[in-house]
Amino acid sequence: MSVRPASVGSFLRAAPPDRLPEVAAQHLRTWFPVDNVEVFLSDLTMSALWPVLDPEAAPGGSFAQRCFGSQQAVISGGAGEVLLPLTTWGDRLGVLRIQLSVGDAREHLTEFTAVADELALALRAADKDTDRYRQVVRRQRLTMAAELQWELLPGRSLGGERFRLAGQLEPAYAMYGDHYDWSVTDDRLTITVLNGDGDGIEAALLTTVAVNAMRNARRSGANIVEQAELASDAIYSRYGGNSHLATLLLEIDLTGGTVEAVDAGSPKALIAREGDIVPVSLEQQLPLGMFGDSRYETQKFQLDAGARLLVVSDGVHEAAPGGKPPYGDSALLSALRRTRLQPPTEAVGTVIRALRDYHEGTDPADDAVIICLDWLRRTA
Protein backbone atom coordinates (compact mmCIF):
# COMPACT_ATOMS: atom_id res chain seq x y z
CA MET A 1 0.00 0.00 0.00
CA SER A 2 1.26 3.47 -0.89
CA VAL A 3 1.99 5.79 2.00
CA ARG A 4 0.55 9.30 1.84
CA PRO A 5 3.33 11.93 1.56
CA ALA A 6 3.75 14.00 4.69
CA SER A 7 3.50 17.23 2.72
CA VAL A 8 2.59 18.52 -0.72
CA GLY A 9 5.39 21.08 -0.42
CA SER A 10 8.08 18.96 -2.08
CA PHE A 11 5.84 18.37 -5.10
CA LEU A 12 5.06 22.10 -5.40
CA ARG A 13 8.74 23.01 -5.20
CA ALA A 14 9.52 20.54 -8.01
CA ALA A 15 6.68 21.76 -10.23
CA PRO A 16 6.89 24.44 -12.94
CA PRO A 17 5.80 27.79 -11.44
CA ASP A 18 2.71 27.99 -13.65
CA ARG A 19 1.40 24.51 -12.72
CA LEU A 20 1.08 24.79 -8.95
CA PRO A 21 -2.75 24.61 -8.79
CA GLU A 22 -2.74 21.44 -10.91
CA VAL A 23 -0.11 19.80 -8.70
CA ALA A 24 -2.06 20.61 -5.54
CA ALA A 25 -5.30 19.36 -7.11
CA GLN A 26 -3.68 16.11 -8.22
CA HIS A 27 -2.26 15.55 -4.73
CA LEU A 28 -5.70 16.03 -3.17
CA ARG A 29 -7.44 13.72 -5.65
CA THR A 30 -4.78 11.01 -5.20
CA TRP A 31 -4.74 10.84 -1.41
CA PHE A 32 -8.24 11.93 -0.39
CA PRO A 33 -11.79 11.22 -1.57
CA VAL A 34 -11.85 14.51 -3.48
CA ASP A 35 -14.09 15.04 -6.49
CA ASN A 36 -13.34 18.65 -7.43
CA VAL A 37 -10.74 21.32 -6.62
CA GLU A 38 -10.64 25.00 -7.52
CA VAL A 39 -8.20 27.77 -6.69
CA PHE A 40 -9.63 31.30 -6.54
CA LEU A 41 -7.45 34.41 -6.55
CA SER A 42 -8.54 37.89 -5.53
CA ASP A 43 -8.57 40.57 -8.22
CA LEU A 44 -6.67 43.84 -7.85
CA THR A 45 -9.64 45.66 -6.34
CA MET A 46 -10.16 42.91 -3.74
CA SER A 47 -13.81 42.75 -4.81
CA ALA A 48 -14.08 39.30 -6.45
CA LEU A 49 -12.40 35.89 -6.44
CA TRP A 50 -11.57 34.41 -9.85
CA PRO A 51 -10.99 30.72 -10.71
CA VAL A 52 -7.59 29.52 -11.93
CA LEU A 53 -8.11 25.85 -12.84
CA ASP A 54 -11.32 26.52 -14.79
CA PRO A 55 -11.07 30.14 -16.00
CA GLU A 56 -14.49 29.92 -17.67
CA ALA A 57 -16.24 29.13 -14.37
CA ALA A 58 -18.07 31.71 -12.31
CA PRO A 59 -16.24 33.75 -9.66
CA GLY A 60 -16.24 32.47 -6.11
CA GLY A 61 -19.63 32.91 -4.42
CA SER A 62 -20.72 33.89 -0.95
CA PHE A 63 -18.98 30.99 0.82
CA ALA A 64 -15.66 31.82 -0.87
CA GLN A 65 -16.07 35.50 -0.01
CA ARG A 66 -16.86 34.60 3.61
CA CYS A 67 -13.71 32.47 3.80
CA PHE A 68 -11.60 35.22 2.23
CA GLY A 69 -12.98 37.89 4.53
CA SER A 70 -12.91 35.93 7.78
CA GLN A 71 -9.67 34.07 7.02
CA GLN A 72 -11.30 30.97 8.49
CA ALA A 73 -12.19 27.63 6.92
CA VAL A 74 -15.81 27.47 5.76
CA ILE A 75 -17.66 24.14 5.56
CA SER A 76 -20.57 23.98 3.11
CA GLY A 77 -22.52 21.53 0.98
CA GLY A 78 -23.63 19.38 3.90
CA ALA A 79 -20.02 19.16 5.15
CA GLY A 80 -18.91 17.79 1.78
CA GLU A 81 -17.15 20.98 0.70
CA VAL A 82 -14.53 23.08 2.44
CA LEU A 83 -13.09 26.46 1.54
CA LEU A 84 -9.71 27.47 2.97
CA PRO A 85 -7.86 30.81 2.87
CA LEU A 86 -4.71 31.06 0.77
CA THR A 87 -2.64 33.41 2.90
CA THR A 88 1.04 33.79 3.66
CA TRP A 89 2.58 36.22 6.19
CA GLY A 90 -0.82 37.88 6.41
CA ASP A 91 -1.00 38.57 2.65
CA ARG A 92 -4.36 37.30 1.37
CA LEU A 93 -4.08 35.69 -2.06
CA GLY A 94 -7.36 33.85 -2.45
CA VAL A 95 -9.26 30.70 -1.50
CA LEU A 96 -8.84 26.94 -2.05
CA ARG A 97 -12.13 25.06 -2.56
CA ILE A 98 -12.20 21.27 -2.09
CA GLN A 99 -15.29 19.17 -2.87
CA LEU A 100 -15.33 15.63 -1.46
CA SER A 101 -16.97 12.72 -3.26
CA VAL A 102 -17.76 11.00 0.05
CA GLY A 103 -17.29 11.71 3.71
CA ASP A 104 -17.11 14.78 5.91
CA ALA A 105 -14.59 17.51 5.09
CA ARG A 106 -14.03 18.12 8.80
CA GLU A 107 -12.32 14.73 9.08
CA HIS A 108 -9.49 15.99 6.85
CA LEU A 109 -9.44 19.65 7.85
CA THR A 110 -5.92 19.57 9.30
CA GLU A 111 -4.47 17.99 6.15
CA PHE A 112 -6.43 20.31 3.84
CA THR A 113 -5.27 23.36 5.79
CA ALA A 114 -1.65 22.23 5.42
CA VAL A 115 -2.13 21.91 1.64
CA ALA A 116 -3.65 25.41 1.47
CA ASP A 117 -0.74 26.86 3.45
CA GLU A 118 1.86 25.17 1.26
CA LEU A 119 0.06 26.25 -1.91
CA ALA A 120 -0.20 29.88 -0.76
CA LEU A 121 3.53 30.03 -0.04
CA ALA A 122 4.35 28.46 -3.41
CA LEU A 123 2.02 30.81 -5.31
CA ARG A 124 3.65 33.85 -3.77
CA ALA A 125 7.14 32.56 -4.57
CA ALA A 126 6.17 31.70 -8.17
CA ASP A 127 4.62 35.08 -8.91
CA LYS A 128 7.88 36.53 -10.27
CA ASP A 129 8.44 33.62 -12.66
CA THR A 130 5.08 33.29 -14.40
CA ASP A 131 2.35 35.64 -15.60
CA ARG A 132 -0.44 33.09 -15.18
CA TYR A 133 -1.66 34.23 -11.77
CA ARG A 134 -1.35 37.93 -12.57
CA GLN A 135 -3.44 37.39 -15.68
CA VAL A 136 -6.17 35.87 -13.51
CA VAL A 137 -6.30 38.76 -11.04
CA ARG A 138 -6.26 41.48 -13.70
CA ARG A 139 -9.74 41.99 -15.07
CA GLN A 140 -8.67 44.73 -17.48
CA ARG A 141 -5.43 46.09 -18.87
CA LEU A 142 -3.28 48.24 -16.59
CA THR A 143 -1.83 51.56 -17.68
CA MET A 144 1.96 51.64 -17.87
CA ALA A 145 2.03 53.80 -14.73
CA ALA A 146 -0.09 51.28 -12.85
CA GLU A 147 2.16 48.45 -14.06
CA LEU A 148 5.15 50.19 -12.50
CA GLN A 149 3.29 50.85 -9.25
CA TRP A 150 2.00 47.30 -8.78
CA GLU A 151 5.48 45.93 -9.47
CA LEU A 152 6.83 48.21 -6.73
CA LEU A 153 4.30 47.33 -4.00
CA PRO A 154 5.42 45.09 -1.10
CA GLY A 155 2.05 43.29 -0.94
CA ARG A 156 -1.48 44.14 0.14
CA SER A 157 -1.41 42.95 3.73
CA LEU A 158 1.05 41.76 6.36
CA GLY A 159 0.58 40.27 9.79
CA GLY A 160 2.17 38.70 12.81
CA GLU A 161 1.54 38.14 16.50
CA ARG A 162 1.98 41.83 17.29
CA PHE A 163 0.28 43.62 14.40
CA ARG A 164 -2.08 43.44 11.45
CA LEU A 165 -1.45 45.70 8.45
CA ALA A 166 -3.19 46.31 5.12
CA GLY A 167 -3.04 48.81 2.28
CA GLN A 168 -5.09 49.58 -0.81
CA LEU A 169 -4.65 51.77 -3.89
CA GLU A 170 -7.36 53.34 -6.03
CA PRO A 171 -7.88 53.29 -8.98
CA ALA A 172 -6.22 49.90 -9.26
CA TYR A 173 -5.87 49.88 -13.04
CA ALA A 174 -4.89 53.50 -13.69
CA MET A 175 -3.00 54.86 -10.69
CA TYR A 176 -0.28 57.49 -11.03
CA GLY A 177 2.21 58.37 -8.32
CA ASP A 178 0.62 57.52 -4.96
CA HIS A 179 2.20 54.53 -3.27
CA TYR A 180 2.92 52.73 -0.02
CA ASP A 181 5.76 50.58 1.23
CA TRP A 182 6.51 48.61 4.38
CA SER A 183 9.07 46.33 5.95
CA VAL A 184 9.34 44.54 9.29
CA THR A 185 12.70 43.63 10.86
CA ASP A 186 13.06 42.47 14.46
CA ASP A 187 10.94 44.84 16.58
CA ARG A 188 10.68 47.64 14.01
CA LEU A 189 7.97 48.12 11.41
CA THR A 190 8.63 50.79 8.78
CA ILE A 191 5.70 52.22 6.79
CA THR A 192 5.91 54.81 4.02
CA VAL A 193 3.01 56.53 2.23
CA LEU A 194 3.77 58.71 -0.78
CA ASN A 195 1.74 61.34 -2.64
CA GLY A 196 3.13 61.38 -6.17
CA ASP A 197 3.55 64.63 -8.09
CA GLY A 198 2.04 64.85 -11.57
CA ASP A 199 0.31 62.10 -13.50
CA GLY A 200 0.90 59.28 -15.93
CA ILE A 201 4.14 57.41 -16.28
CA GLU A 202 6.24 60.40 -15.17
CA ALA A 203 4.56 60.35 -11.76
CA ALA A 204 5.18 56.60 -11.49
CA LEU A 205 8.84 57.03 -12.41
CA LEU A 206 9.25 59.74 -9.76
CA THR A 207 7.76 57.41 -7.15
CA THR A 208 10.00 54.57 -8.35
CA VAL A 209 13.11 56.70 -7.77
CA ALA A 210 11.94 57.68 -4.27
CA VAL A 211 10.88 54.22 -3.12
CA ASN A 212 14.07 52.55 -4.31
CA ALA A 213 16.20 55.26 -2.73
CA MET A 214 14.44 54.77 0.62
CA ARG A 215 14.73 51.00 0.33
CA ASN A 216 18.42 51.32 -0.48
CA ALA A 217 18.96 53.40 2.64
CA ARG A 218 16.78 51.17 4.84
CA ARG A 219 18.48 47.99 3.69
CA SER A 220 21.83 49.57 4.53
CA GLY A 221 20.66 50.07 8.12
CA ALA A 222 19.70 53.76 7.79
CA ASN A 223 17.00 55.29 9.99
CA ILE A 224 13.95 57.08 8.56
CA VAL A 225 15.66 60.49 8.59
CA GLU A 226 18.49 59.11 6.46
CA GLN A 227 15.95 57.35 4.22
CA ALA A 228 14.10 60.63 3.64
CA GLU A 229 17.29 62.57 2.99
CA LEU A 230 18.71 60.05 0.52
CA ALA A 231 15.41 59.93 -1.37
CA SER A 232 15.19 63.74 -1.39
CA ASP A 233 18.74 64.04 -2.71
CA ALA A 234 18.07 61.41 -5.40
CA ILE A 235 14.90 63.18 -6.58
CA TYR A 236 16.55 66.61 -6.61
CA SER A 237 19.54 65.23 -8.51
CA ARG A 238 17.19 63.81 -11.15
CA TYR A 239 14.59 66.58 -11.40
CA GLY A 240 16.38 69.70 -10.13
CA GLY A 241 13.47 70.73 -7.89
CA ASN A 242 10.90 70.71 -10.70
CA SER A 243 9.22 67.59 -9.26
CA HIS A 244 8.87 66.56 -5.65
CA LEU A 245 7.13 63.99 -3.52
CA ALA A 246 5.03 64.45 -0.39
CA THR A 247 5.81 61.56 1.93
CA LEU A 248 5.08 60.31 5.44
CA LEU A 249 7.64 57.91 6.90
CA LEU A 250 6.82 56.00 10.08
CA GLU A 251 8.87 53.60 12.19
CA ILE A 252 6.87 51.73 14.84
CA ASP A 253 8.44 50.04 17.84
CA LEU A 254 6.38 46.85 18.02
CA THR A 255 7.31 46.23 21.65
CA GLY A 256 6.33 49.60 23.13
CA GLY A 257 4.16 51.31 20.50
CA THR A 258 6.34 54.40 20.08
CA VAL A 259 6.13 55.83 16.56
CA GLU A 260 8.87 57.97 15.04
CA ALA A 261 7.69 60.03 12.07
CA VAL A 262 9.16 62.15 9.31
CA ASP A 263 6.31 64.24 7.88
CA ALA A 264 7.44 65.49 4.48
CA GLY A 265 4.12 66.51 3.01
CA SER A 266 0.45 65.74 2.69
CA PRO A 267 -0.37 62.15 3.79
CA LYS A 268 -2.42 62.30 7.01
CA ALA A 269 -2.26 59.96 10.02
CA LEU A 270 -5.16 59.25 12.38
CA ILE A 271 -5.52 57.06 15.46
CA ALA A 272 -8.76 55.20 16.18
CA ARG A 273 -9.51 53.71 19.59
CA GLU A 274 -12.78 52.86 21.35
CA GLY A 275 -14.88 54.75 18.81
CA ASP A 276 -12.80 57.95 18.80
CA ILE A 277 -10.77 59.00 15.76
CA VAL A 278 -8.09 61.59 16.45
CA PRO A 279 -5.77 63.19 13.86
CA VAL A 280 -2.08 62.87 14.64
CA SER A 281 -0.62 66.35 14.91
CA LEU A 282 2.70 66.52 13.09
CA GLU A 283 4.72 69.49 11.87
CA GLN A 284 5.06 69.24 8.11
CA GLN A 285 8.51 69.53 6.58
CA LEU A 286 9.43 70.06 2.93
CA PRO A 287 8.40 67.41 0.37
CA LEU A 288 11.20 65.17 -0.85
CA GLY A 289 13.23 66.63 -3.71
CA MET A 290 12.05 70.23 -3.46
CA PHE A 291 15.52 71.57 -2.65
CA GLY A 292 19.05 70.20 -2.66
CA ASP A 293 20.52 69.03 0.65
CA SER A 294 17.13 69.08 2.44
CA ARG A 295 17.40 67.85 6.02
CA TYR A 296 14.68 66.29 8.14
CA GLU A 297 13.84 65.70 11.78
CA THR A 298 11.76 63.04 13.50
CA GLN A 299 8.70 63.57 15.66
CA LYS A 300 7.19 61.02 18.02
CA PHE A 301 3.75 59.88 19.05
CA GLN A 302 2.44 56.90 21.00
CA LEU A 303 0.15 54.00 20.15
CA ASP A 304 -1.75 52.34 22.97
CA ALA A 305 -2.27 48.57 22.97
CA GLY A 306 -5.14 47.74 20.66
CA ALA A 307 -4.93 51.10 18.84
CA ARG A 308 -5.57 51.44 15.12
CA LEU A 309 -3.36 53.72 13.03
CA LEU A 310 -4.66 54.93 9.67
CA VAL A 311 -2.75 56.83 7.00
CA VAL A 312 -4.44 58.34 3.93
CA SER A 313 -3.04 60.20 0.94
CA ASP A 314 -4.43 63.48 -0.34
CA GLY A 315 -6.44 61.56 -2.91
CA VAL A 316 -8.52 60.46 0.08
CA HIS A 317 -8.62 63.36 2.52
CA GLU A 318 -8.69 66.15 -0.10
CA ALA A 319 -11.06 64.52 -2.63
CA ALA A 320 -13.80 67.05 -3.45
CA PRO A 321 -15.76 65.75 -6.46
CA GLY A 322 -18.28 68.11 -8.02
CA GLY A 323 -17.55 70.88 -5.55
CA LYS A 324 -18.43 68.77 -2.50
CA PRO A 325 -16.65 69.41 0.79
CA PRO A 326 -13.33 67.52 0.99
CA TYR A 327 -13.87 63.86 1.82
CA GLY A 328 -11.63 64.24 4.86
CA ASP A 329 -13.89 66.86 6.48
CA SER A 330 -16.53 64.42 7.70
CA ALA A 331 -17.24 61.62 5.19
CA LEU A 332 -13.89 59.97 5.88
CA LEU A 333 -14.56 59.85 9.61
CA SER A 334 -17.99 58.31 8.97
CA ALA A 335 -16.42 55.63 6.79
CA LEU A 336 -13.69 54.94 9.34
CA ARG A 337 -16.26 54.49 12.13
CA ARG A 338 -17.93 51.76 10.08
CA THR A 339 -14.66 49.83 10.08
CA ARG A 340 -14.38 49.63 13.88
CA LEU A 341 -15.11 45.88 14.05
CA GLN A 342 -13.38 44.98 10.80
CA PRO A 343 -9.80 43.72 10.48
CA PRO A 344 -7.43 46.01 8.54
CA THR A 345 -7.77 43.87 5.41
CA GLU A 346 -11.51 44.61 5.31
CA ALA A 347 -11.29 48.16 6.68
CA VAL A 348 -9.22 49.51 3.79
CA GLY A 349 -11.76 48.17 1.30
CA THR A 350 -14.64 49.74 3.22
CA VAL A 351 -13.00 53.18 3.07
CA ILE A 352 -12.13 52.86 -0.62
CA ARG A 353 -15.70 51.80 -1.51
CA ALA A 354 -17.08 54.74 0.46
CA LEU A 355 -14.69 57.03 -1.43
CA ARG A 356 -15.97 55.63 -4.74
CA ASP A 357 -19.55 56.28 -3.62
CA TYR A 358 -18.58 59.83 -2.66
CA HIS A 359 -17.51 60.45 -6.26
CA GLU A 360 -20.97 59.32 -7.46
CA GLY A 361 -19.68 57.76 -10.66
CA THR A 362 -17.32 60.58 -11.64
CA ASP A 363 -13.66 59.84 -12.26
CA PRO A 364 -11.45 60.82 -9.32
CA ALA A 365 -9.04 63.69 -9.92
CA ASP A 366 -6.25 61.91 -8.02
CA ASP A 367 -5.27 58.41 -7.03
CA ALA A 368 -5.67 57.37 -3.42
CA VAL A 369 -3.90 55.29 -0.79
CA ILE A 370 -5.08 54.05 2.60
CA ILE A 371 -3.00 52.12 5.13
CA CYS A 372 -4.50 50.52 8.24
CA LEU A 373 -2.41 49.13 11.12
CA ASP A 374 -3.67 47.42 14.27
CA TRP A 375 -1.00 47.21 16.97
CA LEU A 376 -1.80 44.19 19.15
CA ARG A 377 1.21 44.31 21.48
CA ARG A 378 1.56 40.54 21.67
CA THR A 379 4.93 38.93 22.17
CA ALA A 380 6.18 36.11 20.00
UniProtKB/TrEMBL annotation:
User: Which keywords does UniProt give here?
Assistant: Hydrolase
Q: Which InterPro entries match?
A: Bact_Sigma-Reg, PPM-type-like_dom_sf, PPM-type_phosphatase-like_dom
Q: Which residues form the PPM-type phosphatase domain?
A: 165-375
Q: Which Pfam families match?
A: SpoIIE (PF07228)
Q: Which SUPFAM superfamilies match?
A: PP2C-like (SSF81606)
Q: Has UniProt tagged this entry with the keyword Disulfide bond?
A: no
Instruction: From the Swiss-Prot or TrEMBL record, give the protein name.
Output: Serine/threonine-protein phosphatase
- Native organism is Paractinoplanes aksuensis
Q: Provide the taxonomic classification.
A: Bacteria, Bacillati, Actinomycetota, Actinomycetes, Micromonosporales
